[in-house]
Design a protein that fits this description.
Length: 180
Amino acid sequence: FHSLDSIQGEKISSIRCFEEMADGTIYIGTTGELCKIAADNTLQVMDVDLNYVISMTHYADMLIGCTNQGEVFILEDDRVIYTCTNENEEDYYTCVGLVDNRIIAGTSTDEIEELRIDNGKIQVVNRVNTAPLLGIQEIEEDSTGKIWLAAENGLGYFTDDGLTIVPVKEFESSIENVHE
């Protein structure tokens, strides 16, 4: 077991997420800057203007992420090629996930959005209502094809039959992660 607890003599900020790319590079989202673990197991602070990364996934050779400020970004070849905020000024992005090779972004309200990358830019191609779930924190697809949503006020999943809410008796807290 190897512990990476500093970067060039500085402490790592609180880790919020990580994502491994096809080439083995691991990106780490922190409350400070975006970091990565290179192939030689060294930890590096990325020279990009991205702070407080809370969610990441990868699509093709691109890292897709979401910041605590509600932005979605695309990182390619360790460069930010695009950032965007939600088209609805009252809404902001809360997470990103990959479902059936489609990029899905959670929002602070009762929607998830399917995003497409076209010429290096993000376009919204579909919006799906998630009510009564609000503030989607995590989007995961399981081996049976269910699309799980962890939200600030509960847990649910989509199938071909629509959204099913999972009863969580006496559970009064937000759900941040779902993993199979």
